[in-house]
Amino acid sequence: MVGYLLAFVFLIASANGDTISRIINGSPTTIASHPHQISLQRYTTSSGGYWYHTCGGSIVRSKWVVTAAHCVEGSSASTLQVVLTNGFLSDPNRKSYAVRRVIMHPNYNVGSGAYPHDIALLELTSDADLSGTNKAIELATTGENFDRQTCDISGWGHTVTGTQPNKQIPDQLQETNGVIMTNSECTSSWGTNYAGSVHICINNRNTGTCQGDSGGPMVCFRGSTPVLAGVTSWGVSGCGTTYPSVYARVSTYRSWLDTTMGI
């Protein structure tokens, strides 16, 4: 039993891009297909100082971005910036926005399971320019269910599998999709680490999210309207395996999100 538990714990790995920052087996895409997608960047003082992509996120209001709590844990607002691009991190016309406040869910990582309540809000110091291709996305409503729907995921995380140190993040935004699994199916894969009240998972066998995709969007549809249904949270070390990727269930946090944003 101990061996099984140790092996199982080894499988679980945050998709955090803190120290290594692709969508596995996905396809290059454009920001027009994912206009809500942002690059969350962190400042480092090494090599003279520079900003680097660390996680994804989603614009939900002109001054508000949703990302994963583990992406910003221990970070001050001054070390983070939100970057809007044309889908390429090297976009010469990219727009960078300073962060005024970092607000993690008050119950982040409290309770049973892996990374419960892994969601955070970033308040920008100024309104993001949403007059062009970049747009805010609607949030899932409380109790909204997306089981069996094919949903989209996107990000700039690693695009190759495994744990080799030479993995690089792509310049161009990547996308893939998968079918939302039921809570019982997700529990069959992850056991007690999966908590259906706060987690949602997607069947994206041999594709999916990886380091650098954390905090990014899982987008489902309400009719023809794209809706932020999940925030990339955790999966299997090595990425791109047969285990489902796990996301923070946005519908659970709609009330907290609205209250925090003053809506």
Automatic annotation (TrEMBL):
<dbReference type="GO" id="GO:0006508">
    <property type="term" value="P:proteolysis"/>
</dbReference>
<dbReference type="GO" id="GO:0004252">
    <property type="term" value="F:serine-type endopeptidase activity"/>
</dbReference>
<feature type="signal peptide">
    <location>
        <begin position="1"/>
        <end position="17"/>
    </location>
</feature>
<dbReference type="InterPro" id="IPR018114">
    <property type="entry name" value="TRYPSIN_HIS"/>
</dbReference>
<dbReference type="InterPro" id="IPR009003">
    <property type="entry name" value="Peptidase_S1_PA"/>
</dbReference>
<dbReference type="InterPro" id="IPR001314">
    <property type="entry name" value="Peptidase_S1A"/>
</dbReference>
<keyword id="KW-0378">Hydrolase</keyword>
<keyword id="KW-0732">Signal</keyword>
<keyword id="KW-1015">Disulfide bond</keyword>
<dbReference type="InterPro" id="IPR043504">
    <property type="entry name" value="Peptidase_S1_PA_chymotrypsin"/>
</dbReference>
<keyword id="KW-0720">Serine protease</keyword>
<feature type="domain" description="Peptidase S1">
    <location>
        <begin position="23"/>
        <end position="262"/>
    </location>
</feature>
<protein>
    <recommendedName>
        <fullName>Peptidase S1 domain-containing protein</fullName>
    </recommendedName>
</protein>
<keyword id="KW-0645">Protease</keyword>
<dbReference type="InterPro" id="IPR033116">
    <property type="entry name" value="TRYPSIN_SER"/>
</dbReference>
<dbReference type="Pfam" id="PF00089">
    <property type="entry name" value="Trypsin"/>
</dbReference>
<dbReference type="InterPro" id="IPR001254">
    <property type="entry name" value="Trypsin_dom"/>
</dbReference>
